[in-house]
Structures
1.
Amino acid sequence: MKVLPFKIPKPENNALIYQEDIEVVFYDKLHQHDEIQISFIEKGNGTLLVGDKISSYAKNDIFIIGSNLPHAFKSDKNVEEKSKMLSLFFTETSFGESFFELNELAEINHFFSKSLQGLILKSNKTEIINNFLKLKNASKLERFILFLEILKTASNTKSEPLSTFVYNKKYSDIEGKRMRNVFDFTIENANQRISLDDIANVANMTKNAFCKYFKKRTNKTYVSFLTELRIENACKLLNTEKDLSINEIAYKVGFNNISNFNRKFKEVKKVTPLSYKNL
């Protein structure tokens, strides 16, 4: 299976694709596809990588991932219960070249430009979730109507971008494999010391070449990316391991200096670790 680009299995004559993922671990390889993806997390927790940004996902989250936006869902380890994600896949031309240009659909036109960086929806979630839960047993016509309802609600809800930068070229297979290896290694070893020489070796590049390569494709340095991942891991522990001290969490996620952890945490999250823990 090619990692990038990734082909969504498409039933014959189906313009709209509905998919259920019920797994202990979702498909977690960095990939991209032409289709826009709207996903509802019915069960599960983990790490979401979209474009240049690391975030978390949890039950009842709703994500929109734009066309050809590289992404990966990394389910939390040591979880026995299966995760469940419901998704819709479609393109701007799935229903005809000019379908979304119809005057009747004008109120959702801005949806496509917003989706380029990916979105997490922040309001009107109950309405969208209820429609998602109806999709499985719906006829094809009913599913299409539900899709339009979901699209309408998603177009008019509060949201936050998932990525701050979009590399506007498709990854080649070689690039896709290289970036996948870099992200996989980083996520698996974020709590350990990772030097630029280490990660450059993973990418099979010299250190200087790797730094330029990574910055061009993510608009940030590798060190910044690693720091953001560690901060995201710290947030999970702050939310779930209330008995751990701030110091313990800092060292557990890969920081060897508590003052540096506090400074970097506030830079990324705009609050101190203690304030975040008490939210």
2.
Amino acid sequence: MNDAVWNGRTFDGDRRVRMCEVGLRDGLQVEAAFVPTEDKIALCNALSRAGMAKIEVSAFVSPQAIPALRDAEVVLREIERVDGVAYTALVPNVRGAERAIDARVDEMNLVMSASESHNLANLRMMREQSFRALAEVAALARQAGVAVNVSLSCSFGCPIEGDVAEAGVLGWCERFVEELGAGGVTLCDTTGMAWPGQVHGLARAFLQRWPGTELTLHFHNTRGMGLANVLAGIDAGARRFDASIGGIGGCPYAPGATGNVCSEEIVHALELSGWDTGVDLARVIEAARRLPALIGHDIPSQIVKAGRRLDLHAPPADFEATRERALAREAARAH
């Protein structure tokens, strides 16, 4: 068993959890305010230095469709590349793939939905049409020597159709792995419908069938079960998780969806539980604190609001006087 040393402690190799930061894409895509390009670059650099295993930097989509990410090429070209960090981007079609390759992306993240209704609402295509388009992108990626990950939206439920059958989800995963040659698959809880038992069962089934394929789990905290679902995934053997700085994000075509699970909250919880994320939590919190000024509103992160478990507070101004009075009363009582 391989040991890992992190933050002065030694972990066995199975205690390592790899964090993929998606706030720069999934988080910013739904924001009304355009975050300046230089601030996106600075945030990405800060997250790289914080030790994220992977960062989804942007999306190579139509600027008319998602204007918040219209600077994808510039951001990806001008970030500082840190050894050991994979820089990925969402790529919807061949044109997007060509742009991503030109900007030196490390991995293309291709997206479709497990649900026909959500796929139509989100991508304006039937699932088979989406799959054919992804096959073209995957072929171009192979030619360019770029890794491919496929994200399957609504793997744990669809806001239009309801439950999504596990067999159907695994059927699409089989096609991604065996027909497209995807090196990784992300199972996405797009609108926060997942629950821990469901997560455990689906993650375990995937890992048993494709142990050589990287499985990532992507949760939203819409119904307050984000962290519980992460822990259920870990219990099933998953070791890769998407999360968003500050807890921002959401699908623009998923009514009622709230932010992704929060990067600093997940790292904080896992660190306390003895898991090695390789992430410098203080640096992530510092980066998250920049967000309200950039996006123009508060962020969900409870760690930013309340601090870490042992971030203690100064006593009240009259603390010493109160203590002296209490000691005086105790002395009088003793006599």
3.
Amino acid sequence: MTSTTQAHQKLVDHDALSVDPYTVCAQFREAGPVHRITGTDGLPAWLVTRYDDVRQAMADPRLSLDKRNATPGGYRGMALPPALDANLLNMDPPDHTRIRRLVSRAFTPRQIEQLREPIQRTADRLLDSIALQEHADLIASYAAPLPITVICDLLGVAPADRLDFRAWTDALIAPDPTQPSRAKEAVGNMLAFFTRLIATKRTAPADDLLSALIAVRDEEDRLSEDELMSLAFLILVAGYENTVHLIGNAILTLLRHPDQLADLRTDSARLSAAVEELARYDGPVPLAIRRFPTEDVTIGGVTIPAGETVLLSLAAAHRDPRRFAEPDRFDIDRDATGHLALGHGIHYCLGAPLARMEAEIALGALFDRFPDLTLGVAPSELQWRPSMRSRGLLALPVRTAHMTGAAEPA
């Protein structure tokens, strides 16, 4: 890469970023630690690319998540009403600390461990349906319904009320520029859904997380109404969105590395460590949530003015040879601890233990049930979401057993 202009052009190339973000990110990373770029929204931002800088920035209290610290007109984010926008991804302490403390009790290791058997039952039920098919799309039939079932059970969303969350989140996270109204419609649908759901829970509370949060709001007055609804929205969307792609990307990676998949099958005790490497190698979040300096800050020798948008590239950091040896090589025996796929610092993902458990159960159950599982198309035919916010497949076609005489995809 010889000029920042070339770098800017590559950043906004959605095709290159969605199919192979790591080549683009490597060019940025090796050209320098911090770049002034033009984002896909046409506005300027600063891209941080190297592991040590990204990790330190994620924990730097001078880098705010509160959009009120952005330079006026310098950031154009997802348009959400206050009832959905007052969530942890837009907050700094002390509000962030207060709300995180309220919900963290639902995500302790003890609480999460109690979900293991229900998650296993859900995975097995989904696989029972897949076993009846010779061909399947593992995103639509497995990677998506598993986490949405888990998070809806946790919140207390009845099966009859589980609407098309995938369509709504797709419209928000990867909006179609040819259909700009879809994102606005998705926001309206989500707002109406959570309004109805909270009203129902107020009338008939149950033993679930949302009922507990409503009690905190109504009886203890430790949440505003907007914070209550925004928190429910964030738990559902984040608990679903990232886990879908963590599982989907992991399945694809293992299918493309059959020797390492074979090793996992012979020693399931290695699955936990393998999930960490899978999250590093091709995780669901290419960029951390944007940040805004509350004062001029220097990162990688570059001074970034207060209020400007800072983007921390996890995709670049996870392939940084300064931190991970041979970073472009997938290795289930690698010590991938320290990866940033689930965050770092005070914004570390509350649901990280749940996401890890879901991925371990999903992968173990799938490959135990279908030892001959293969891709149903050539890897080059797979389609990725055109998004910088998340990395995930639109579909993952597979064959549940080898077809006699059929050619294997390249």
